[in-house]
Amino acid sequence: MAAAAAAGYENPDEWELVNDDGFVHKRRKRPRTDTAAAAAVTSSAAPPPPDPAVERKHLRERRKRTLLKLRDKYLTEISRWELLSNTLKDMEQSAQTHSPERQHLHSTASFGGASTSEDHSASDSTRRSIVDDLLSQVEAQEAIIDNVSNLCDIAERLCISQEERLKQQLTNLPIWEPSPHELMAVLGEQT
Description:
Layout: H1 2-8, E1 15-20, E2 23-28, H2 35-45, H3 52-113, H4 120-171, H5 180-188
Antiparallel strand pairs: 1-2
Helix pairs in contact: 3-4
């Protein structure tokens, strides 16, 4: 029982944290050998370390490319939202222009209801104008509903494209490229 517990226990000093270009993970510490022999082996077998200035330049270029892509993505998204906003403002303005007509319609309807039988011909023309106003209001409301429906379709397409973009980013990760056997071999290697 004690042997099983001792076998399951791992010394935390055997692990080290590694920051690999923003990806932080744990790995087993490499066994230390004689530093003089290791220095002789690494100097003859390993290429010289890269120049820090060149490394910084490559890092700066990669960051610049990434930021430019991000900026372009956000600019296209902003232009889409501006289009939606402008369409919504136009709809609000058209709705406001129809609201004075409604107030005029209500005043006309109350005036038409107070008419007497002597003004039958005048009330008939008033009723016709009220019906015409109501028809124009219904047509305006139908146009507003169509505009809102179009805005909803555009917003839905934006959401779907964003979701597809996120899915594509996950499927384009380099971890998916090798076969499962290669992936297991790489993950099983001691670095």
